[in-house]
Amino acid sequence: MPSIPRTIYAITGLSPGRITHAQLAALIRGHWRIEVLHHIRDVTYRDDACKIRTGTAPRIMAGLRNLAIGLARLIGWTNVATTTDHYRSHPTDGLQLLGLTT
């Protein structure tokens, strides 16, 4: 099926001619890649509702959530919520995956 041409509007502070269309597209894709990660962290792990607010603990928890998402993708899971449900129900599977059980 042929792709349908479409117009996408974006606002930037860059002057015309300072960036190519391909570079601008890459910046936009990079932005949405981060937004997807934030969405997964908030919806699946309720990141915004977390009560951890002092010291370095919030940054550590965000790092652990990012690690869990990255590991899920690395081993082939495509749905982070399904992955989380599986390992919550089968914690020994997670420990074996990390090599922490015999």
What's the helix and strand layout?
Blueprint: H1 21-45, H2 57-74, H3 80-89, H4 91-97
How confident overall, as mean pLDDT?
Answer: 88
Which geometry do the CA atoms define? Answer: elongated
Contiguous runs where pLDDT drops below 50 for at least 5 residues: none
Q: Could you describe the largest sheet, including whether it forms a barrel?
A: none
Q: Could you tell me the radius of gyration in angstroms?
A: 19 Å
User: How many helices?
Assistant: 4
Gap between N and C termini: 51 Å
- Order of H and E elements: HHHH
What does it look like?
This protein has 102 residues and is mainly alpha-helical. Helix content is 59%, strand content 0%. The protein is built from 4 helices and no strands. It has helices at residues 21-45, 57-74, 80-89, 91-97. The chain starts with 20 loop residues before the first helix and ends in a 5-residue tail after the last helix.
Quick rundown:
With 102 residues, the protein is mainly α. It has helices spanning 21-45, 57-74, 80-89, 91-97.
Q: Keywords for this structure?
A:
102 residues, mainly alpha, 4 helices
